[in-house]
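Need residues for this backbone.
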């Protein structure tokens, strides 16, 4: 099962301030531990929301609305993520607790959310086969 550790933004991350060298090194060590354990799927930081675009669908079947960032509530904005594939929810929590404070100033907040699997979304065999084929293709592309 996959889980995403969502790192919430802060005023500093929204200002585009990079992490300190010490924090960046700590995050790299954490990501290396995840990779060595074979659970790391992806991990990246995101640019500030000033360059983001939010697309909303206010009416069913209607034209989407496009709003340019920045978005004012930094607590609602994502600054980065780590995607892991583990055996259990408990294992995901253990890994999330090992992540360094993502902003290093006592302002860090991580939200841990389980990722839907294809079988959580449909029981249609054709859709599940298409989902599995796409997942296999992506996994093959991401192998070194």
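Answer:
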């Amino acid at each position: 099962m996959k889980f995403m550790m969502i790192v919430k933004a802060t005023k500093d991350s929204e200002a585009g301030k990079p992490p300190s060298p010490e924090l960046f090194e700590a995050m790299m060590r954490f990501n290396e531990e995840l990779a060595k354990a074979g659970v790391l799927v992806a991990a990246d930081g995101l640019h500030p929301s000033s360059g983001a675009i939010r697309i909303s669908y206010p009416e069913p079947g209607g034209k989407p609305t496009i709003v340019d960032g920045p978005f004012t509530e930094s607590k609602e904005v994502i600054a980065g993520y780590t995607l892991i594939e583990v055996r259990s929810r408990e294992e995901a929590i253990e890994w999330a607790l090992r992540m360094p404070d993502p902003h290093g100033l006592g302002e860090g907040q991580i939200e841990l959310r389980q990722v839907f699997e294809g079988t959580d979304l449909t029981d249609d065999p054709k859709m599940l086969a298409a989902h599995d084929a796409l997942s296999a293709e992506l996994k093959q592309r991401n192998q070194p």
